[in-house]
Amino acid sequence: MKAKVVAGKGEGARYVEVYAQKIKKLTGIVPFHGTLNLDVGFIPPLEVEEIEAFGEFGAVEIAPCAVNFERAFAVFPEKGKNREEGIVEVIAEKNLKEALGLKEGSFVDLQF
Fold first, then answer.
1. Residues in CB range of 15: below 8 A, 6 or more apart
2. pLDDT of residue 15
3. DSSP state string for 44-59
4. Measured in whole angstroms, how far is the alpha carbon of residue 67 from the centre of its chain?
5. Tally of structural domains, the chain
6. Predicted pLDDT at 57
7. What CATH number should be reported for the domain holding residue 97?
């Protein structure tokens, strides 16, 4: 599906850092501390795995995906509203924005 790169709230890096060890255990990757936010309009039903809530942090659902054929993972924080707004937050081992030369408004191919 086509997806448009959109600005995030600037909180992704903090949360990826907090969840990094749990993400690594679940996915096998050491995530870059930041997310790529993609507007897809509608998020189809996905097979997800869950990182359980801990401390003050809510649960996070994770689904494998690819952005322009780069291995990545869609993350859906329990406490976030992005999913209902059609926004997918994506994590990967590298900064996808830099690696793929993306900027706000760029379009990418998102595969689940």
1. 57, 77
2. 87
3. PP---EEEPPBTTBPP
4. 10
5. 1
6. 87
7. 2.40.30.30
